[in-house]
Amino acid sequence: MSLSSSGPALPESAVRIIYDRGLSVMRYAASRTGDRDTLFVTFTGFEGNRNDRPGFGEIFLGREGVSCLAVKCVNRNNFSDISLEEMREATRDLRGAYRRVVTYGQSGGGFAALYFASALSADAVIAISPRNSRDPKYRHKRTVIPDEWQDTQRPLREVDDGTPQKLVIYDCFEPQDRQFFDNEIAGLAGLRTIVVPNAGHPVTQYLSEIDVLKLIVRQMRRADDPDLVVADLRATIHRTHRQKRRANLHYLTILARRAAMRKKAAAFDGIVALLDGRRGNDAHVRRIAGGYRALHRPAAFRAEVADGLTRFPQSERLRELAAEIAARRGERPAPGTGDRTGERAGVGPDRQVPGNGKRGLIKALRGLFEAGPPGKEEQT
Predict the structure, then answer these.
(1) How many alpha carbons lie under 13 Å from residue 312 in its C-beta half-sphere?
(2) N or C: the chain end with fewer CB closer than 10 Å?
(3) Closest CA to 110 of 92, 132, 95
(4) pLDDT lower than 70: segments of the chain
(5) pLDDT the model gives residue 161
(6) What integer pLDDT is reported at residue 359 of this predicted model?
(7) What is the dihedral of CA 218, 220, 221, 223, to 10 degrees?
(8) What pLDDT score does 309 carry?
(9) Which of 246, 276, 298 lies at the terminal end of a domain, its last residue?
(10) Rounded CA gap, 107 and 117, in Å?
(11) What is the number of helices (H) and of strands (E) in the chain?
(12) Closest alpha carbon to 40 in 51, 22, 56, 53
């Protein structure tokens, strides 16, 4: 479970709003133990659109007895309404009450943790899969940013004041994250990196699932010797990654999809391992099926799956995909296991869809694996 959402939230009476511009809000929750050693300033990126709810990491840090200033934004403006000077002025008194300040965020929040570190006089930064999606160079094709919130912030190298401890954790095989790191982050003063291959974007979910995300936050809380702390974290993360990755559904999903997109034979092993898992759901299977089309791309897949798999309700599209696979293989599914979806998928009224949702799709995909790749006349 993510550190940003687990456990009971602090009562609103314990949270003080120190800044509210409508788009961006700063929520301060002092340590319930009275600890004034470290203040965490967390940044909630695209994953949070409600400023009346706890910010990224706020609940976990509260349980740990750590003071937290949660900076939140709405509508994907990624804090474009806060200047460096405004951040400095809004937090001046608060910063002076603590010995150390640590900024922390993921994705767009990770970028903000790096960007505002100088204004907060931060002693350390934890940036997980940092990316500035308001910059068109690093924006996902499905990400929509209003014109008034296009990138207006200065490059990181121009605002960097040499914060001594910058820890960046990312997946080196995630193209946009790798590009952003190489172009905008590499070379910053005090930079230390931990790479987690095939953990996706952001890697926070995977790190949480293998039980190391909490360790990162706890270690960086009192990282007086950053080299020693990061070296220990790197060794622990890599060891745990090797031990747990093959049993982790999130990792298998990403690995299989990437292998399929690269047309590697390893895609078969990854997808079969995923489909054999007991914890999968329709969303996981849908994503894998989308990657699988790179290996098996007959006309039916192009017309009915490639362009529309993610744009329709999951259950209906999964049934249609299962029907298309069954039609291609010439199988006759068990009577009474389908519905009228088969007619729309070109199966015909006498050929029912092989079950609904994940179960029917898995059965059809397994049959396709056993049959082997399509013949040359079916490939495009």
Answers:
(1) 15
(2) C
(3) 132
(4) 1-13, 47-51, 75-76, 136-152, 256-257, 259-380
(5) 84
(6) 53
(7) 130
(8) 33
(9) 246
(10) 16
(11) 15, 8
(12) 56
Structure tokens at 193: 């990196």
**What integer pLDDT is reported at residue 346 of this predicted model?**
31
| Whole-number pLDDT of residue 163 | 75
Residues of the domain holding 220: 12-246
- Residue pair 26/17 in contact (Cβ under 8 Å)? The answer is yes
pLDDT for 48 equals 54
Q: From CA 179, how far away is CA 309, in angstroms rounded?
A: 27
Instruction: Give the count of domains, the chain.
Output: 2
> What is the C-alpha to C-alpha distance for residues 179 and 53, in angstroms, rounded to an integer?
32
Same structural domain for residues 155 and 273? no
Domain with residue 54: its CATH number is 3.40.50.1820
Whole-angstrom Cα distance, residue 326 to residue 352?
Answer: 9
Whether 225 and 264 share a structural domain = no
Q: Is 223 helix (H, G, I), strand (E, B) or coil?
A: coil
Q: Where does residue 291 rank: exposed (0-12), middle (13-18), buried (19+ CB within 10 A)?
A: buried
Burial 327-362 (b: 16+ CB within 10 A, else e): bbeeeebeeeebeebbbebebeeebbbbbbbbebbb
> pLDDT at position 335, please?
42
